[in-house]
């Protein structure tokens, strides 16, 4: 949805915003301007007072690209949409409800009428949203180049803050709200906030129809089992929050960011998707570097989606900057220190030096033709163990080989990630040896349609479905041996419904590995994994 609907700005037709109802989806709407003398400034924040001063600074710094777009004519406009995720500060002035307050609400709910219950639940969802551990910022950034302005242009960002990972909702919403704000100003915030207030509560795993002006957003929300418990998200009752071991309907999302563009993002590194899947599965720290915020966000989201239906418990940051409070701690790590499980998406090349001891670095995307970074397509195969090395596959054909590809592989390994300081390459630097073999039958099914952008987009949809279905099946089969540990014994007939439920079977890692080694991993995985597959489980 690239065009905004025809909104009426007449006061008698406007929808009044309800901040409490709005917070089921949105914590705040912010307008941030880049001032040449004072830096990033928050011009508007609705509703006011919902962020601490530290959070306002973090939102402001995360809402702009690290560099100005190179798409500039004498007078031009460049828009981009991306998102970031940051940890809320423990000393937030918002505070959480005490246990006695929550208990009091529960007592009230049991003795209230249905309408009163809805009001109480709405109040409680607002309190919970304030206590969420992470916040997501969804950004519409506009860079306007004009030689008549000081320093040749200006920047402004429209930001939606939410406690939910609902990129499939807020990306199309920003495509409406961003241009609308630059057309009519602050009234756009009031209109959008009013419509969001009318939305029903989020129902995980369901297709929701969300009215916005004359448009209707039809979006699938991620399922409950993919949402971290500490996220503070409050939603209406839905189906079981257990991750399904055998998904019955492939069209229903089974994890976060189910509509991310895996194929488009990792097109030059398709052979390495199975390596990346394993790294994410075992919680290895990964640094993803891309030329632009939208590209690094899409890469992080695509990686997170690979492990569905498993809950992605690593700390992922779609767009990470040096202004993040966590950067100082990461920057202090020395060689031999262990990085926490995380996936960081960055565009600032300074991170290559600051986080030079991070064990896995992935370079994706392509810079603009007029960018200062030079694009060099790298086609490489083969590996030299025990040293960090670079890999790439520019074309889908797995049979092509040339001396130049071997030369590029050796050159990437020798130069290391710092070669990105002078020229951009799609590559991976890692010493990890994957257990899972790339599935060439899946790669051969992918369609490479380098024709018009319209055909390219439709082919990407098909390719993404093929890849996502394969990795969903791969993850589901990997999880299958753990299934018996999540099946409780059935209570005996006539037992009291008030008694504690039967306990889950005890889990012992050594016993599990010994049993798994004896019975094998199953046909599906045995065909796709090397003989040391037990090491991955270990």
UniProtKB/TrEMBL annotation:
One of its GO terms (cellular component) is recycling endosome. Residues 92-124 are annotated as: Disordered. Residues 27-538 form the UDENN domain. One of its GO terms (molecular function) is guanyl-nucleotide exchange factor activity. Residues 115-124 have a biased composition (Basic and acidic residues). It comes from the Eukaryota. InterPro entries: DENND6, Tripartite_DENN. PROSITE patterns: DENN. Belongs to the DENND6 family. This is UDENN domain-containing protein.
